[in-house]
Amino acid sequence: MVNTNKIVGQNVKKYIEGKGIKHSWVMERTGIKKTAYYNFLKGEGNVEEYVAKINKLFRINDPFFFYKADMEFKEKTFDRSRSDSFMNYVALSFHGAEDEEFKKGMHLFSEFVELIDVLKSVTNSEHPRG
Predict the structure, then answer these.
(1) Residues with Cβ < 8 Å from 67, sequence gap 6 or more?
(2) 15-24 pLDDT, tens per residue?
C-alpha cells in the first residue's frame, strides 16, 4: 500500500532542498513548529494543512503538486544566476501583490548589489600605492 503522506513529505523535502532553502527559513515563514515540520517531512501529522502553507509560501497554485509519485525537481539554486536567486528569494519573502514597479525596484536593487560586489573585488585586488 502506498503511503501518500510519506510521498508528500519526501517531495516537499526534495523541493525545498532543490531550491537551496534552509528548512528553518520555511518553518519561520509558515509558522510550522520544528517537531511538526520534521514529522510532516516523514509523512506524519496534519499533512494537508502543512501542504497548504507550503503551497502558499512558494505560490504553488496546484493543491496536488506534492502528491505526485516519482517527482523530480531539476531546478537547483547553483544552476541559476545570482540575480535570479536573489529575485526568487525576495519574491518568497514578499507576501503582497507583485507588480511591475516591485519587479523593477528589485531588479535595480539587485544590480546595485552586484555593482558593490564588483567594486569590492576591484578595491581588494589593487596593490597599495607606496
Answers:
(1) 4, 7, 8, 11
(2) 998 888 889 9
Using a 10 angstrom Cβ sphere, with 0-12 exposed, 13-18 middle and 19 or more buried, the burial of residue 111 is: exposed
Give the DSSP H or E segment for 119: helix 100-125
pLDDT at site 77: 43
DSSP string, 40-81: HHTT-S-HHHHHHHHHHHTT---TTGGG-TT------GGGS-
Q: Give the other-Cβ count within 10 Å of 56's Cβ.
A: 13
pLDDT, average across residues 44-50: 95
pTM exceeds cut of 0.85: no
Q: Which three cell numbers stand for residue 45?
A: 501529522
